[in-house]
Amino acid sequence: MIRLDKFLGEAGLASRRELKALLKAGAVTLNGRPVADGAVKIDPERDAVCFRGAPVEGPRRLVLLLHKPAGYVCSTEDPRDRTVMELIPERYRRQGVAPVGRLDKDTEGLLLLTNDGALAHRLISPKYRVEKCYYARHAGTAGEADAAAFAQGLVLRDGTRCRPALLRPLGPGESEITVTEGKYHQVRRMMAARGMPVDYLRRDREGSLSLAGLEKGALRELRPEEIAALREEAGEK
Ligand code: URA
User: Fold this and answer.
1) pLDDT single digits (tens) 34-60
2) Of 5, 43, 47, 104, which is the active-site residue?
3) How many domains, the chain?
4) pLDDT at position 165, please?
5) Residue 81 sits in the same domain as residue 192
6) Same domain, 86 and 188
7) CA-to-CA separations, 46 to 42, 43, 58, in angstroms, rounded
8) Is 96 helix (H, G, I), strand (E, B) or coil?
9) Structural contact between residues 197 and 139, judged by C-beta atoms closer than 8 angstroms
10) Measuring from atom 3 of ligand 1, which residue has the nearest CA?
11) SS3 state at 62
12) Where in the sequence is the domain holding 105, given as residue range(s)?
């Protein structure tokens, strides 16, 4: 069960304030009867909600790709810091999108946001092994021994064991790292465990998606075929 105003808001019909007026004006019917009270609880599977005579579908499944700049935290609210939600236009926020997993405040790069909770769970879960690929600038220079340690499954300084990962040295102080899980500060901690603390980190790829063509701070909706590919990569039939 969900509040009628929340259901209408997530369907992207209007802002909360506009909805109040529309409800009052009798623009919304519930099972054929005008309803003015947005607090009424409905069952979206059983109840028929119409707006100006047309059936209202549940929220459209939406996936956004954001090029996250540094300085924003990946939560929907925060008492101190700016959140990535400030970079998301109101019309998407109304549809209930939230970040898929977290990038650190100082990490830049590819961040997905969606209102599809099941898909978000699969993308984050190590079980489905969706690849996340990072570019790191760090102290020292990575070599074969570091790559071998990553491939074996690194043990972090606190004893946490990581899944096998790919470390590709790009040159002095630069590497590409591909992981299939998302432990707290994972890449920074993996690199620190090899004596190469990271001073800049950017996620360039998640599954088949890349940042290509997207300026820092910009976002775009994924196309249906991109969402379908992502679902497949995350093990959805
Ligand atoms: N690993 C990290 O250490 N930080 C991130 O933001 C993402 C992966």
Assistant:
1) 999 999 999 877 888 999 998 887 777
2) 104
3) 3
4) 98
5) no
6) no
7) 8, 6, 12
8) coil
9) yes
10) 185
11) coil
12) 64-125+215-237
